[in-house]
Write a structure and sequence with these properties.
Distance between the termini of chain A: 58 Å
Oligomer: homodimer
Largest sheet of chain A: 7 strands, mixed
Largest interface: A-B, 54 and 54 residues
Amino acid sequence: MTLASTRVTRETELSVIGKRIPRPDAPAKTRGTAQYVADIQRTGLLHAAVLRSPYPHARIRSLDVTAALALHGVKAVVTADDTPGRSWGAFRKDQPVLASDKVRYVGEEVAAVAAVDVETAREAVLLIEVDWEELSAVLSIDEALADGAALVHDDAPGNITYHFGLERGDVDAGFARSDVVVEGTWESARQFHAAIETIGSVAEWDLNDRLTIWTNTQTPFLSRGRYAWALGVAERDVRIIQTEVGGGFGGKSGDDNNPVVCALLARKAGRAVQLINTREEEFLAGSRPRMPMRYWVRLGVDRDGHVQAKDIKVLADNGAYTGKSIAVMGAASVRPDTLYRYPAVRADSTLVYTNLVPTGAFRGFGSPSADWAVEQAWDMAADELGMDVVELLRMNAVESGDVSLHNHRITSCELKQCIDKAAELIGWHHKRAQRTPNRGLGIACSVHVSGRRSFGDYDGSSAMVRLNEDGRATIISGEGEIGQGAGTVLRQIAAEELGIPFEDVDVTPSDTQLATHALGALASRVTYVAGNAVLRAARAARQQLLEAAAVQLETAVSDLEVRDGRVMVRGAPGAFGGGVLVGEVARKRLYQRGGGPILGVGEWDNPSDFPDESRYGNESGAYNFMAEAVEVEVDPETGNVQVLELAAAVDCGTVLNPTLAEGQVEGAVAQGLGLAQSETFAWSDGRPQNPNFGDYKLPTVGDMPIIHLAFAESYEPSGPFGAKGVGEIAVDGVPAAIANAVHDAVGVRITELPITAEKVYRAMREREAQR
Amino acid sequence: MTLASTRVTRETELSVIGKRIPRPDAPAKTRGTAQYVADIQRTGLLHAAVLRSPYPHARIRSLDVTAALALHGVKAVVTADDTPGRSWGAFRKDQPVLASDKVRYVGEEVAAVAAVDVETAREAVLLIEVDWEELSAVLSIDEALADGAALVHDDAPGNITYHFGLERGDVDAGFARSDVVVEGTWESARQFHAAIETIGSVAEWDLNDRLTIWTNTQTPFLSRGRYAWALGVAERDVRIIQTEVGGGFGGKSGDDNNPVVCALLARKAGRAVQLINTREEEFLAGSRPRMPMRYWVRLGVDRDGHVQAKDIKVLADNGAYTGKSIAVMGAASVRPDTLYRYPAVRADSTLVYTNLVPTGAFRGFGSPSADWAVEQAWDMAADELGMDVVELLRMNAVESGDVSLHNHRITSCELKQCIDKAAELIGWHHKRAQRTPNRGLGIACSVHVSGRRSFGDYDGSSAMVRLNEDGRATIISGEGEIGQGAGTVLRQIAAEELGIPFEDVDVTPSDTQLATHALGALASRVTYVAGNAVLRAARAARQQLLEAAAVQLETAVSDLEVRDGRVMVRGAPGAFGGGVLVGEVARKRLYQRGGGPILGVGEWDNPSDFPDESRYGNESGAYNFMAEAVEVEVDPETGNVQVLELAAAVDCGTVLNPTLAEGQVEGAVAQGLGLAQSETFAWSDGRPQNPNFGDYKLPTVGDMPIIHLAFAESYEPSGPFGAKGVGEIAVDGVPAAIANAVHDAVGVRITELPITAEKVYRAMREREAQR
């Protein structure tokens, strides 16, 4: 096949792609010299603190900032009166910057203070007097949907934020054809990003009333538009400079009020202001945690195991404000259907306002909640059929060339390879044949996009690549780096295409004034989408380089190639003294009559569709796939589940940098384990109790099982050097795989996250009681 | 004529060009928020001080830094041992970073200290013990050229740095044809730039051994190359970020050791280091002052006043190290010949090493020293001829289409208009007809380049113009802003070409990593050369905009135009609701299937020649011209010269921004007045006495005469919107015009700068004695 042979030819020549190149930003991060938002220094910088709602739902009868303003060292206090009074949000504009008449969740921003130091600012916050009228609150989906429930927003009757339904194929006929029908309802969890760095901003207005915000955002350009709207200023008057980002995971994608409040304070104080969330604020009202869903699934298969129909009903907890929740629920409702060859699916999905922290984008987006349910339903079906679930999944798995019911066109797909590798790595067949008491195996699969058309009919990227007279190349791109290694991968792509060493490529930070427009780090898009733009820019630059070299060396462009930073004659590496240094060619091209720099421009748009209202449309030009298998041991006395081994096999196309790709998969697995087993708070009156890292149990290195990683042999024809996205997918399957393994081990099925010892213990006791 | 009509058509349409647009950077500069190098903050920033030579010439027998290193708070001490031991320089690599075996002028860098604060660093410098062996020094051109003089550099016998000569046309025959031959020798002065901000740097090495220098340089890219060489590292490993620059005038064009020493300290300390010259250091060894020349001229004219020949002999004081002195002397030797129609010229020019502060580039480059001599020779010739000098200059003035003996091709020239305007504004004919005792009139002309091919066969610039989805445009250019208003003018050019308001255009700061290569602010090139690149980039962007709009509006590109930030139908301004906002078109073009940003690239190279060894070649694609006339009153009792009025008429092509152009001319006139009348130190043993602003007498606002400014009606066909350079020329003629006016007033001719009361008094007394 042409593609495969092209790939082989290319890969034998690759010198940067596929290599374990260490991240050049690592030394600065590990040794403390990287510049995070807390390191931004501006002359006269003030520090800020925020007064937040102590109630999940309350009316503000009056607000008095007199005492706060009078405190020595306080330079500005802002309230709703300082805002343009408009609500904002990515998909539904329902969130105020500072609450005016009422508050809707514990932690909501009410007022803020800027002072000479943060201690003074916090002291002043305590001096703000609020006359509260507590209102009855809806603290769960059930409370929100109950008759006569208090309304979170007056314009959302019944507390319904959003609803959509779809049916593709004849679902009823599918179930009629089915020999086995399973169903169940699963509850997923409000997981927090818990990035090491909390959200923070430094804002400063210049004397021409233009605002600069240094912030640790994942999406500088998209955030700019929202913040400008919230501030009531023109987008053109806001400049966002991305600082180093200490972890994003979706939680820093521009839905939070932090930078807006910071900007209001800076305007009022006439000085630069820094506002950095405390850990408690980050939990209460910072990054938007994963959206809990109640996910009902009915799945029908025939006696051979071929799937016939799937029906779901989703209720999703939006929290008090919307952010990206509509899209999260949409993805949870549709995306799993690109995993197996469903002939008919139905969905009915409802997003519900509650007086709880707003939920939002989190690594995996809707998939972890969907897979938690659907991948258990598949396990149940296998059980009912008396068939090995590995065989069942394999039989129904999509393949390259398939088109899903939602018109998702699958270009490259090695899902079966992933299932096989995961099963092999965990020792599936061997261990299922020779069972150990209280031990069990489980598997789950997932699919993810590589970018998604979400913001208008565009999911593209653009970049410039300069090949400089000093021999270095500079990638000008606005995509930025959020700690995931995007900068490293883009540099690899440019270096490979240019034929120069990795070390010789720089990439600009994301800055809305300097860099080209970019949607930023979301939807596992940067490698695939921005990588393609950078590839094209580098190709254009290389062409200019070769043309210049051809003139300088008096030879034909077609006779030349670039390798190891030198322009050489193809097949005659010794010619011209072993080739001419790229920097020499570039300098000569510049320093000549009519000279100029080498400057390539590249644009690329994801070959995808903007889904319609019913979410029909090929949302991404490429899909990545994954299978995760686990072995657990359940303590029959306590119900404690120990994950012994975990095998993750991922199809992300070409692995551009194994070290970084493994890091992404391992990190996602760790987050999946936390979601599955430990990450939860006790809540009281809409407030997590003790929102800190002592009480919110993130898995640590000591909690990690043996992890086996594998990447499928895969090549995505539309990807840069065959690559697809990889950043999110490996979080998705962990909870379902563990639940399936628990069932395999001790025969009980856990339907509510996290899978605690207590739940397993109770389920085992109930099961015994029923015997 | 085609050009003229094009111009008229364009000008009637111009909405940004030619307007008095205030500099957008002015508020920040006047209110203290602009970020100069002293404002750069880095974590753990150290502060530095330099041990400098107290002797003009001495051997370093030994150097002991033990005590300095032991001082509490000292983090690093560097000496020559920390340098790669190589000398550096723009045109001759003769300058060490830190002196090793010997020092060659007072102020030369010997060692440096970085400490927690500058007081500690300075204290530590005093603790460095040096065992000096004082050597005999050459402290003037005469001492340097004397038989048996001490050698400043062992490899420069006779202390000759550089020599060149030329003869074009038959000079002897010219003098033979001449009816009047005048001659004289003039001494020009070591003028200091005295920029409000001294030279300073912050240097920091990252963990990958790459160096970033924040510095107030005029030429980030050219400086980078030199500093990298001096440090012995690859140019690619040095990044220069231009801070705000508090005045350059040529003194911040990358010839000084400050950033290199700062970088050495930062490397040794492993921390960021700031090194900012004190005012005393700036005078002793900071910016390179104007090169004093002894300039002998012989000029021959026929009885009608037509020039027949000119011969010059130049001896120039290089100081201890070379920098750009070779080019300065070259310009002084050749450039004046592009002012009048000389049929034959000869030059013999010698650059001489002395044990004095190195001299270098200063506004006007070689011209103020040359014009000081040559324009007085013309005045003497007029005197001898009994002809009004205005008439004489006018008769010999070059015109558009002329080609000088050095092959300088004059495209646009309104020198005669300048002479007429200057004469008219000063009231020349009226006042010469009705003389007032002790009052006199003088006039002088000058020519300057608009860019010059100096660094290889390239004097180009490149730029990118992005037309952003927020409606703003961004100019990406590395040319930078040194306080002269370059950023404002480039923004005007882009705004005009794009058809959007000035306020909607941003320009990137100069940063060798982010911006396109640029030669920077030198040779009055930015408006003309970089302006042309920006114009072309903007034109490319506008074309992309129109193409996008044509698709969106379903009309032809040729039917559309951009005006006031809107795309409109030509001749139908009401169509499409008065047009579509540029930002809307750009956003729509981006947010579409296959979309992308609007991004224009522009390159332009000065249509000039790289002069040969004899300096033959058209050094610039355009020449600007100037005439300055002054009226003085000489106090017969004291010799004090009061300049009553000064008229400057400048041909800089189209005046892009009258406010800025006037500012350039007024500022240059002020520097010319300082050069002419007051700027001098008493020197002792190679050291200026009291190097401070109390003793170095800069003219202040109270010293200013009435100034009349005029710009010639002029249009340079190769310039952006018809513009040429304007930044330097008006300094050139002031000293000669005043000297000529003094002669007109009291009959004595001053041949040595500055024109002090004492010199005039002595000359008057001598003249009386001779009567």
